[in-house]
């Protein structure tokens, strides 16, 4: 990836934890940026050593990241971010594209803490970014145009699916996809435990449950089908699946799942207001 001039793009990470590493790894493996052009900062070497292992440069100075890189991801915990932004604000220029991954920190808060014309975007990632199967959304601030959004989207597709949404949908994404990883794990666990109850060995049951989720997800995405269609295709009259589905509906799975997404979204909105 090269910038408009002859200098290569340099990608910075302020905060070098799990999410920063997942994004950096995705970008490097997809060839979107060379490892030597990535600079990450954090107060300790605890996580920076993982960046060095990837071939990236590291520093303990957040300002150095801004002074070196034109695209910078802010990947600290949300409560730390305001102090970090205040620290780097004096070295932010109109050349920077600044991307926050912090859950619950609004674009208006980010813009208040940065110089008035700073180009700011938010990304809401989820943990499967670690295996390049993330489901991400991005939202852009007042001074980030469609070209910055498209640029970021193209980069982040190295870590999974990435779509632009209005900021109001970011908290819903957190409920659906950020927290959704835990909901899906609960379902996978329950699916496997049903098989264990019926006599299947535990390891095999968990592997098959996870693969069933993966295969079903691939079919839904590749065929662009509505889940109800695929579900109908699996049901034969008076067959095993319709008996199982009846039991699921009696157990209230659908209502419980909808409530889980609603509860997680409401909590994300509540945290955003703090
Ligand atoms: N994990 C997820 O599934 C997920 C999903 C959606 C959004 N997010 C968002 O992603 C962000 C990062 O989450 P994470 O799970 O990657 O967190 P994490 O693993 O705890 O990493 C946080 C990083 O921030 C660094 N840090 C702490 N204080 C700093 C400072 N003053 N200046 C610069 N860096 C500082 C830490 O330094 P040390 O290495 O020295 O400890 C660490 O490298 C959060 O805002 C979270 O809301 C995460």
From TrEMBL:
Gene Ontology molecular functions: pyrroline-5-carboxylate reductase activity
Stored NCBIfam families: proC
Protein family per UniProt: Belongs to the pyrroline-5-carboxylate reductase family.
Keyword entries, A-Z: Amino-acid biosynthesis, Cytoplasm, NADP, Oxidoreductase, Proline biosynthesis
Residues passing through the membrane, by range: none
Name of the molecule in the record: Pyrroline-5-carboxylate reductase 3
Role, per record: Oxidoreductase that catalyzes the last step in proline biosynthesis, which corresponds to the reduction of pyrroline-5-carboxylate (P5C) to L-proline using NAD(P)H. Proline is synthesized from either glutamate or ornithine; both are converted to P5C, and then to proline via pyrroline-5-carboxylate reductases (PYCRs). PYCR3 is exclusively linked to the biosynthesis of proline from ornithine.
Domain Pyrroline-5-carboxylate reductase catalytic N-terminal: 10-104
Binding, NADPH: 62
Residue ranges constituting the Pyrroline-5-carboxylate reductase dimerisation domain according to the UniProt record: 167-271
UniProt cross-references to Gene3D superfamilies, sorted A to Z: NAD(P)-binding Rossmann-like Domain (3.40.50.720), ProC C-terminal domain-like (1.10.3730.10)
Self-association state and partner proteins as the record states: Homodecamer; composed of 5 homodimers.
Annotated positions binding NADP(+): 75-78
Single GO BP term: L-proline biosynthetic process
Known EC number: 1.5.1.2
Group of enzyme by EC: oxidoreductase
Substrates-to-products reaction catalysed: L-proline + NAD(+) = (S)-1-pyrroline-5-carboxylate + NADH + 2 H(+); L-proline + NADP(+) = (S)-1-pyrroline-5-carboxylate + NADPH + 2 H(+)
Pfam families, alphabetized: F420_oxidored (PF03807), P5CR_dimer (PF14748)
Pathway this chain belongs to: Amino-acid biosynthesis; L-proline biosynthesis; L-proline from L-glutamate 5-semialdehyde: step 1/1
Provenance organism: Pteropus vampyrus
Location(s) in or outside the cell: Cytoplasm
GO CC annotations on file: cytoplasm
């Amino acid at each position: 990836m090269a910038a408009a001039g002859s200098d290569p793009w340099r990608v910075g990470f302020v905060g070098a934890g799990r999410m920063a590493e997942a994004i950096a790894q995705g970008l490097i493996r997809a060839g979107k940026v060379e490892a030597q052009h990535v600079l990450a900062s954090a107060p300790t070497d605890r996580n920076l050593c993982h960046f060095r292992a990837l071939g990236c440069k590291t520093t303990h100075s957040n300002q150095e990241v801004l002074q070196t890189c034109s695209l910078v991801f802010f990947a600290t915990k949300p409560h730390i971010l305001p102090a970090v932004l205040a620290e780097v604000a004096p070295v932010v220029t109109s050349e920077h594209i600044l991307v926050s991954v912090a859950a619950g920190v609004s674009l208006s808060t980010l813009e208040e803490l940065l110089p008035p014309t700073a180009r700011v975007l938010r990304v809401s990632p989820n943990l499967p970014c670690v295996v390049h199967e993330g489901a991400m959304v991005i939202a852009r601030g007042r001074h980030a145009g469609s070209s910055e959004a498209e640029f970021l989207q193209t980069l982040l597709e190295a870590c999974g699916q990435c779509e632009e949404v209005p900021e109001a949908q970011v908290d819903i994404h957190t409920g659906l996809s950020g927290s959704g990883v835990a909901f899906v794990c609960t379902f996978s666990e329950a699916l496997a435990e049903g098989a264990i109850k019926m006599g299947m060995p535990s390891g095999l049951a968990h592997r098959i449950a996870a693969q069933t989720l993966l295969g079903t997800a691939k079919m839904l995405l590749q065929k662009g089908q509505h889940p109800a269609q695929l579900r109908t295709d699996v049901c034969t009259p008076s067959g095993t699946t319709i008996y199982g589905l009846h039991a699921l509906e009696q157990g209230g799975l659908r209502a419980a799942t909808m409530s889980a997404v609603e509860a997680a979204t409401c909590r994300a909105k509540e945290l955003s207001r703090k």
